[in-house]
Specification:
- There is one protein chain.
- The protein is mostly helical.
- Helix content is about 75%, strand content about 0%.
- The protein contains 14 helices and no strands.
- The longest helix has 28 residues.
Length: about 325
């Protein structure tokens, strides 16, 4: 894939907002229905899956019956090793729950990769094209959804199923050059997306929805916005984006418990009225958390063995 400058910026923004979300959810205000969490939920995880689809494009395009096993093996080590090691460690030392909360992203992404292989295998047989690919993506997603509805009881499968459209959106955008946005009238492109986002967000905020419809519009909006200001984005955000996996698996261990602050904010005003304050608190706390993750990941990466076991990193030699 030709390097697109703002992709690392998008990865940085995605992981930073995920850290904010977990600070608020696990350390500050808890599981509450408030505007701050709803705004983050409307784009941050789908954006991560969208970017994963972008980076999976090159490998999926070269999938054949001869290299499927190698592809699956690489993704197994890269995703499920960190899930098992850090998810298990967090489970036994911090949360003591029946699963690995927060780490669902990794097996869910692994499922997206597997369903993507099914899509690409079929596409290799019937041929591709913009419309045909879009229809095939919906078809494969529908079959995968039917499997879940008939009680395919696999841990974290539903999470992958919900995020698969965003994963394939990234794949599709990369395949057909939509990422560059050169062929689109940006002003005409943005207005309907913004309208659809706010309408769907209002509906989602007022009731529970099994699928994140606002993200279908929020992700392209964020991509357009970041691409428009890419030259002004600080380089440290790009650097954070390049280490997004390491930050993701490590940051849970550094989240402080500051629920008394959240309780104080709620006693003064509702969390919706304290949107900016909650945002500032999460942003400030995220700085030492992300810095600690980068330092620790650097230390772990000094050992080829630990780098492979913890992050699926290949031997540097």
């Amino acid at each position: 894939m030709e390097r697109i400058n703002y992709i690392d910026s998008l990865k940085g923004i995605a992981i930073i907002t995920i850290v904010w979300r977990h600070i608020a959810d696990l350390g500050l205000i808890g599981h509450v229905n408030c505007l701050f969490l709803s705004v983050l939920n409307s784009f941050h995880v789908p954006l991560f899956f969208f970017l994963s689809g972008i980076f999976a494009f090159k490998r999926l395009e070269t999938i054949t019956t001869k290299n499927i096993f190698l592809f699956v093996k690489d993704k197994f080590f890269r995703l499920l090793f960190p899930f098992t090691i850090f998810g298990g460690l967090y489970h036994f030392t911090v949360c003591n729950l029946n699963d690995f909360p927060g780490y669902w992203f990794l097996p869910a992404l692994f499922y997206c990769m597997l369903i993507g292989i099914v899509y690409k295998t079929i596409e290799n047989v019937i041929g591709g094209g913009k419309i045909k690919d879009a229809v095939l993506i919906v078809f494969v997603w529908g079959i995968a959804s039917i499997l879940w509805m008939v009680k395919l009881d696999i841990p974290y499968y539903l999470g992958g199923l919900k995020q698969f459209p965003f994963f394939m959106m990234g794949y599709y955008f990369n395949k057909y050059g939509i990422l560059t946005l050169k062929k689109l009238n940006k002003e005409h492109f943005m207005l309907p997306l913004l309208i659809c986002y706010f309408v769907s967000f209002y509906v989602m905020y007022s009731r529970k929805m099994i699928f994140n419809f606002p993200a279908l519009f929020a992700v392209p909006i964020v991509v357009y916005f970041v691409s428009s200001i890419s030259k002004t984005i600080p380089s440290w955000i790009n650097d954070v984006g390049k280490h997004s996996l390491e930050i993701y698996v490590l940051h849970f261990f550094f989240i402080p418990s500051i629920f008394p602050i959240g309780s104080f904010l709620l006693s003064q005003h509702s969390y919706n009225e304290n949107f900016v304050i909650v945002l500032l608190i999460c942003a400030i706390i995220s700085i030492p958390i992300i810095a600690s993750c980068l330092i620790l990941s650097k230390i772990i990466g000094m050992s080829n063995y630990l780098g492979f076991i913890c992050f699926g990193q290949k031997n540097k030699k």
